[in-house]
Design a protein that fits this description.
With 114 residues, the chain is α+β, with helices and mostly antiparallel strands. It has three helices and three strands.
Length: 114
């Protein structure tokens, strides 16, 4: 969408960018700009009224910032203390069994016809 499609076409033509002729549609003036890839990009000058700029996203961000400021800070994580005597051995053995299970080769496939 642009404010003046004829000015855009003239500006692009001065730079050597190919554009399709401007066509008069019921909703506005339309042209196509050819991109370097060969693809066509439609550009139009609307006849309809343009919507006013939306203010809601800014307001929503402000509300989020205010809510975040009111929240309590997250609780501090507990520092890891000394592990119990058997806990360290249990973790080590479960890790070793997990690794050995992954490292084991798959069972051989059955021979065809048996």
């Amino acid at each position: 969408m642009c404010a003046d499609v004829n000015a855009l076409v003239a500006s692009l033509a001065a730079r050597g960018v190919p554009c399709a002729p401007v066509s008069d549609q019921r909703w506005g003036l339309l042209t196509e700009v050819t991109l370097p890839s060969g693809a066509k990009l439609g550009v139009y000058e609307p006849r309809h009224a343009r919507p006013a700029a939306a203010e809601a996203p800014r307001a929503a961000r402000t509300v989020r910032k205010e809510k975040a400021a009111k929240r309590k800070p997250p609780a501090a994580k507990k520092k890891a203390g000394k592990k119990k005597a058997g806990e360290e051995a249990a973790v080590a053995s479960s890790t070793a069994s997990c690794l050995s299970a992954r490292a084991a080769p798959p069972p051989p496939a059955p021979a065809p016809g048996k």
